[in-house]
Amino acid sequence: MTFEETNHIAAYLEGLLSKEEQAHFEEKMASSSEFRKEVDDYRFIWEQSRLLKKQSEFHTYDNWSRLQRRIHRESFKIRAWNWTRTVAAILLLPVVISLFYLFSVKREDILASNEIIEVTSAPGLVSKIILSDSTQIWLNSGSSLVYPRRFTADTREVQLTGEAYFKVKSDKEHRFDVKVPGSMTVSAYGTEFNVSAYKDDATVEAVLAEGHIEVKTEDALSEQLVVSQQAIYNKKDGRLQVLGCNIAEKTAWKDGKLIFRKAGIMEIAKKLSRRFNADFIVKGRSLVNYEFSATFTDEPLSDILSILEKTSPMKFKMEEPVRKDDQSYHRRKVTVTLE
Asked: pLDDT by residue (tens digit) across 149-168?
């Protein structure tokens, strides 16, 4: 085959022949099997050359290197994200716990400040209460105390009806107020005192055992007390007096004792009534001004009445309580006859 024929085949394979030349070339292939074989051989070589040329254009190593770098970058991003997420979770957990704790405590404080408790000591019994600030209170027979389950305001405030002894936990920033509805308020920061405010008494009394207290009436009267003083508020005329007193006599009830120092029969009857849950009826007038001095600890009512009867011209008659239809009992009745 001549050089010209070889170039002619190459031009055919490259698509460079004119229409007439291509038609003539294809007629020649159709008429000569030998020429057609030559063209097929050149076609194979030509196609392989094109493939090799394309492979050289792929830059396989560079492409593989770029692919590896991309894989490393994506892997690093994933590891970095997982590490960041783990660290964030570790750091966030205490924050979440703290927020939950603060929210719970705050919510509990709100609920506690809104929860009001009322405790009433049963007739004939003395009850002890410990408040949320560790203040200790002894509640006398038939007395009631109203207070919040937890103090959250600037002032610690309770309300008393009856008699109670207060041992106030010291707190210089939060005053402790004992309010007696309709009469006066006793204020302290950390001390011990007694307040007697029974509804059927004509007076309200505050006795200071330790430290100091301030007594304020609803009429804006105010007095500062020192140890062994008592403030007496008269419900009828609104007067407020400060007098000396015997602390043991005024506060012995919280320890289960009854101390009388020059006490009249009406005062004795009143204290015995509360201590033993009994109704006293006093008859006669000759002993109205008679004064008694005695100390009782664990004696039953019958023994106390017997001792008083032996030391003064009076007689006692005690009726045992009668059971009601609902299986409860009437209060026992004691009749005192002054001779």
From this structure: 999 888 899 999 999 999 99
